[in-house]
Specification:
The protein is an all-alpha fold and about 200 residues long. It contains 8 helices and 2 strands, in the order ααββαααααα. It has helices spanning about 5-30, 35-65, 85-95, 110-120, 125-130, 135-150, 150-160, 185-200; strands at about 65-70, 75. It has a two-stranded antiparallel ribbon with strand order 1-2. The longest helix has about 30 residues, at about 35-65. The chain is globular.
Length: about 200
């Protein structure tokens, strides 16, 4: 049976998140600590980027419609000016005062605002999932921002995320392999919870 567009983006995100989780564990066991740390940081950055891509596709597909949610709801195109998937972002930009930059899709508030402007049919479901208090997206963003930018402010934000001990996260990426009270590592909990949020958003 042919998969729906929603099933396809969930499958793609789940595959990448689980693969990155496995790679992170492998790099953490590497005897080449310098290379292992570098690779581990790249895993965090890529997981963040993968989540942003998923959120963008979620909103674009929801606005374009012509597909079913995982719960079996048939979505209609949200606005008459949207004739193809490629129309969604330009239409969104025109509704956003002609801004030149797309929303920061990894940020739940901007993603939800875009969904509101596009008047997507499944807005309630998407908003509830992406805005859930147990989503690890903000923690992931804070840690990713430090590894991507290496500034004092991003370092302080990464420390405040509660995933590192000490005063600087520079050489401590594999503290994300520490276990949480639920018996999973930090990175395992992030990937599992992001997949759960994605699944909820697609219902």
């Amino acid at each position: 049976m042919r998969r729906t567009a929603f099933e396809n983006i969930l499958r793609k995100f789940t595959w990448e998140a689980e693969w990155l989780r496995e790679e992170f564990s492998r790099f953490g066991a590497s005897t080449d600590h310098r290379q292992g740390h570098f690779a581990g940081e790249l895993v965090v950055i890529r997981l963040h980027d993968s989540w942003a891509r998923f959120c963008r596709e979620l909103i674009v597909l929801s606005a374009y419609g012509r597909t079913e949610t995982l719960g079996g709801i048939r979505l209609s195109t949200s606005l008459p000016t949207i004739k193809s998937r490629g129309d969604v972002v330009p239409v969104l930009m025109s509704l956003s005062g002609g801004r030149l930059n797309e929303p920061k899709w990894y940020a739940s508030d901007q993603c939800i605002r875009a969904a509101q402007r596009l008047n997507i049919q499944n807005l309630t479901t998407v908003s509830a999932a992406l805005g859930a208090v147990n989503s690890p997206a903000n923690y992931l963003r804070e840690v990713r921002n430090f590894y991507a930018h290496r500034k004092k402010q991003t370092a302080e934000q990464a420390i405040r995320s509660g995933n590192f001990t000490g005063r600087h996260p520079r050489t401590r990426v594999f503290q994300l392999n520490n276990y949480t009270p639920g018996g999973r590592t930090v990175l395992e909990s992030w990937t599992d919870d992001l997949i759960a949020v994605a699944t909820a958003a697609l219902q």
